[in-house]
Amino acid sequence: MKKVTVLILSILFMIFASSCSIIPTTKTYFLKESFNKIAINIDDGDINIFLSDTNENKITCAEQGQIFTDVKVVDGTLVIEKIDKRNFFDRLIPSLYCADIFLTQELVESLDIEYYSCDVTIHPGFTFNDVILAGSTGELELKSNVINTLNVEMSTGDIKISDCNPKEINLKATSGDIDVKSVNTETLNVETSTGDVKIIDCIANQTTVKSRTGDIEVKTISNSNLEVQTSSGKIGVANANSLENVSVKATTGNVTFTNVKDCNKLGITTTTGNIKIVNTTVEKNFNANSTTGNVYLEAFDAENIYVTTTTGSVEGTLLSSKFFVVKSDMGKETVPASRDGGDCIINTTTGDITMTIKGE
After folding, report:
1. pTM
2. Fewest CB within 10 angstroms: 75, 156, 327, 342, which?
């Protein structure tokens, strides 16, 4: 048995050594025909799309041994296919295949790409009218600007969008992560199943983020109506300002708000997840509802505060006086004396209620 194992390992080593000894060669394919869509049929490898600085449309491929590229335009679609004629054992060794696509701005006013199981990066320099991107298991990264609409849909691949200012952004992934950074848009829609979502340094009139089990992190977002939903994932919002109406719903995931200023209205609903709000101000109403989760407010204020839990406790330090109306059927109630100010109405069944005013 040991001899067989040694023999198999020896064969695999020879295959690996043979494959690695083949040095990739660069081949260039010039694009003479026009097209309005790109189909990339590559099972693995890196695809880079650059703005051409030579006024030529071309593809340069790093081909290796019995791996080469078939490039053609079919019915207005540029088809890029990797042809792999290696035997079964050679295919066990990953190839070093990659392709760089150089396109002029005049040729691709809009971009429509469909690809399979490879990593695609669209580098800075382009300004597209519209972009449609659809992929399977590879990673997609867009670093160029879009004017009107950006639509991206992935299966298990990751999506990364940055420095992009279209009117509308729609991003969807099944189990892939989604990262959005430094965008300015009217509408931002993000949806994933088990992947995590990060939205950083963005301006949007309407932001909607939905996830089932993935975590959601929103940092430095402004001028937005914000709607966030998740089932078992965590939700974190930090360093946001000038938000309008904010709605957050989570089942078992915890919800945390930190350093959120000038928020018009804030509503948070959880089942078993805890709610923690720190150094945050709401101009009008704050509503928090949780079944078994606790609610914790630190250096927090709102014109009116409404909190309801079943078994969860409520604890907080407010920045201004309130008219307190609190009730706990089985827990302890410790609140300051009511004064002029907005309402602070807290109801719980078995949880404790402990509230203070900062400085008192």
Report:
1. 0.88
2. 75
